[in-house]
Amino acid sequence: MPSSILTAETYLRNLDSRAMPRYTFGEAGSYLGLPESTVRAWFSGMPYGQSPNVKRFKPLLKPASNDLLCFYDIASAHVLMSMKAKGVQPSDIRGIVSDLQNLCPGSPYPLLGRDFYMFGRDVVVKEVGKRLNLTRGGQMGFRSIMDRFLARIELDANMMPVRFSPLRTHHERGRGYIVIDPDFASGRPVVKGTGIAAEVIAKRKGSGESITYLAKDYRISRRAVEEAIKYFPKAKAA
User: Fold this and answer.
1) 192 to 24, 178, 198, 210: CA distances (angstroms)
2) Which of 22, 119, 180, 222 pairs with 161 at a CA distance of 20 to 30 A?
């Protein structure tokens, strides 16, 4: 077999699917429960102000490509949501991300990985407390919010995410029946432990099929079906 083919096979085998560009800003926003404009601002920047004094909000994080995000990108956005849930202003979020980038120079994902979990998480809590003038109790409250988001992320041996269950608001409770896993359904939200796309379930419900029938047909719990429907409330059969 030609060496060029072996090289290509080795490349594909070693390719990390989690780093592949695949999500539009709109898709990422839909999956995370964020406005598309927020996701775009975080990763691409956006103009603000009125002509002739238009300025540009610089991106917080570098995306996988100019117009697409990878799984690691949306997992990073999931972590940023913990600060947004606490009401941290964009300028302060920028400062905190900058501190993390200085802590881990060269890392493309300062909100993920071993360094973040070992050191960066404490930096975020400390900086949010300082910037919001929080008491010790307030800092602990924010840590609780952030930990709730982080608990939804499943990690590999290097403490990088392999899948996560979006926490669309910090008030949300539950085990997280819907996950984003780059190895299933092209990275679209699926029922945890399966490759069943949540949107397909929601569309079938929209066409008139009952929750009981769908649960039996897919051999999943009623709660999983309900969570899929809640995740895509406007889904309709084509």
Assistant:
1) 23, 5, 10, 20
2) 222
Domain count, the chain: 1
For 140-176, the pLDDT digits (tens) are: 999 998 999 999 999 999 999 999 999 876 566 656 8
Q: Is residue 138 part of a domain?
A: no
126's CB contacts (< 8 A; 6+ apart) are 139
- On whether the CB atoms of residues 118 and 128 are closer than 8 A, the answer is no
Report residue 226: phi and psi, to 5°.
-60, -40
**Cα 25 to chain center, whole Å?**
12
Our CA angle for 4, 8, 13, nearest 5°, is 145
State which residues form the domain around 187: 176-238
What CATH number is attached to the domain comprising 213? Answer: 1.10.10.10
